[in-house]
Specification:
Elements: H1 4-17, E1 22-30, E2 35-42, H2 49-55, H3 71-81, E3 85-91, E4 95-103, H4 115-125, E5 130-137, E6 141-145, H5 146-153, H6 161-176
Parallel strand pairs: 1-5
Antiparallel strand pairs: 1-2, 2-4, 3-4, 5-6
Length: about 180
């Protein structure tokens, strides 16, 4: 994948398939530190140490619809091509944390892509999942918590088209300050 936002979408969909109720996506995109750190944390079903070891193998997948799982192996390869890393910490029945680091000025570092579209796609995928989305740069620190938004919305669903449009504008404004 040539956009980090698509990698984030893929890993977060793994969290959805793992029956997560809460998914946290943290991005630190720093020119000063010369890194892009991405962390995706969930409270899903988690994995054993053996499964964590297998998940970086492109020929391992828990899906029955196909025989390969390229998301995590490609994310890992892309990070390592820049001098960065991918690390997975998981406990069965407790959840998973996927941490990656990309060296920002490396020629092989993919572009960030449209994280706003990624987040709205995830929110629309399952309205019962709560997301914390934190995006930091050297100049911006934006945090969005869908649980707080749902409390404010009351009976209005966060997946309503008008709410999604508002969410996009809210993120766009928060990320452009």
């Amino acid at each position: 994948m040539d956009e980090l936002a698509l990698n984030i979408l893929d890993i977060a969909y793994n969290s959805i398939r793992a029956k997560a109720n809460d998914i946290c996506i943290y991005i630190n995109d720093s020119i000063k530190e010369n890194v892009i750190d991405i962390e995706i944390e969930d409270d899903g079903c988690g994995m054993t140490n053996e499964e964590v070891g297998k998940v970086i193998d492109p020929f391992f997948t828990t899906r029955t619809t196909r025989k390969v799982g390229l998301g995590i192996p490609l994310f890992k390869q892309n990070a390592e091509l820049t001098g960065g890393y991918l690390h997975i910490d998981s406990k069965k029945n407790c959840g998973t944390i996927v941490k990656t680091r990309f060296i920002k000025n490396h020629i092989d570092t993919p572009i960030m892509g449209d994280v706003i579209e990624t987040m709205t796609t995830l929110i629309q995928a399952d309205e019962n999942i709560d997301y914390i989305f934190e995006y930091k740069t050297d100049d911006i620190h934006f945090i969005m918590n869908t649980k707080d938004m749902k409390d404010i919305l009351g009976d209005v669903k966060i997946t309503e088209p008008e709410v999604i449009i508002w969410l996009k504008d809210y993120m766009k404004e928060g990320l452009s300050q």
